[in-house]
Amino acid sequence: MDTLVSIIVPVYNVEAYILDCLNSIFAQDYTTIEVIAINDGSTDTSLEILNNYADKESRLKIITQNNKGLSGARNTGLDYASGEIIVFVDSDDTIASTLVSRCINCFKTSNIDVVSFNHGVFLDNTAQLKPLIKQVEEGILQAHNYFKKAQQLETNTWIASCFYGYKSSFIKNNNLRFWEGIIHEDVLFTPMALTFANTIHVLPDILYYYRKREGSITYNNIKTEKSLKDHLFIINSLYGFSKKQIDVKKQLLLFNFIAQRYVFVIEHSKTISSKLYKQTLASLVKKKQVLKLIPTTFYRKHIETETGYMFRILNGYIFKWPRRIYKYQIKSLFSK
Questions:
Q1: What is the pLDDT along the chain (336 residues), one digit of tens a residue?
Q2: How far is 88 from 25, CA to CA, in rounded Å?
Q3: Backbone dihedral angles phi then psi of residue 204, each to the nearest 5 degrees
Q4: Are 15 and 45 in contact, with CB atoms under 8 Å apart?
Q5: 3-class DSSP state for residue 324?
Q6: Residues 159, 37, 228, 250: what is their CA dihedral angle, to the nearest 10 degrees?
Q7: What is the dihedral of CA 309, 313, 315, 319, to 10 degrees?
Q8: How far apart are CA 217 and CA 273, in angstroms?
Q9: Taking a C-beta distance cutoff of 8 angstroms, is the pair 280, 265 a contact?
Q10: Which burial class, exposed, middle or buried, applies to 145 when counting CB atoms under 10 A from its CB (0-12, 13-18, 19+)?
Q11: Sign (positive or negative) of CA dihedral 298, 304, 305, 306
Q12: Can you tell me the distance from the alpha carbon of 200 to that of 164, in angstroms, rounded to the nearest whole number?
């Protein structure tokens, strides 16, 4: 029998886009699929459109729930998914007709946990794709090597969970779920998934088409106080997760990712909320293994100028030999 693929589509007030999304999914050249559409408390005609579509397409399953947000909708989809392979598609995006078949071929021919594929970005009301920034090169990689290379890219788009296909058993065995109640949930989910994974197959093909629109969560919330508070929550969660990792390479990569996130939050929180800015600095100071990976210029711009005592503590601990040894560790790790 053909391998069943579950495609999970959270739906919330996307009446203008959901038909394009569904049409692209059901145009797949691989037909053994189930599409689980989670109507997450929509107040427009999205549910009506889904019901009309389901009347002619038996592979579409509709689950209606009170609004739980993107994370809650995806988790519901995971609860109902029966497929051996899981793919997430946001309801305002579309996918190439070969996405599922390309993923299936990778899983059948290689002993892997995850497939990564390339994506294009197009603005709302236009079909023209924007030029892509370089992605991790094609091939079968150890997941920690992919994680390392991804962090060196000029873009953070690799974090999006929609740009991957997953073995269902991999997700279930590692109890991977999306944290509900936060935005930018992929910033937590994807690093954890890459830490648990052993191998990943990277495809260079553009198989996912991401729609950039003004009404999207990412567009509206990227630098709001809610966004930055959730980032700080994610940072602290990832740090707790990283401390449980025995594999030193994976732990170092997580620390490095956390350091990047700290820089992002502190740079933006200073102009939005002085309270959050100080909370983030205080949180960073407690994580000495992460502190060692923060650029020296960052200290001079933020931490040194905040309080003299904090700088003296850092000066005594960070700028002596432990910092040099740790920098050598991470440099050697990233040069392999």
A1: 799 999 999 999 999 999 999 999 999 999 999 999 999 999 999 999 999 999 999 999 999 999 999 999 999 999 999 999 999 999 999 999 999 999 999 999 999 999 999 998 888 776 666 656 678 999 999 999 999 999 999 888 899 999 999 999 999 999 999 999 999 999 999 999 999 999 999 999 999 999 987 655 454 455 688 999 999 999 999 999 999 988 999 999 999 999 999 999 998 988 888 899 889 988 998 888 898 888 877 876 776 655 555 555 555 555 554 555 555 555 555 554
A2: 11
A3: -85, -10
A4: yes
A5: helix
A6: -30
A7: -160
A8: 21
A9: yes
A10: middle
A11: positive
A12: 10
Terminal Cα distance for the chain, rounded: 42
Q: 335 CB contacts (<8 Å, ≥6 apart)?
A: none
Q: Is the CB of residue 218 less than 8 Å from the CB of residue 168? A: no
CA angle 256–261–267, rounded 5-degree value: 125
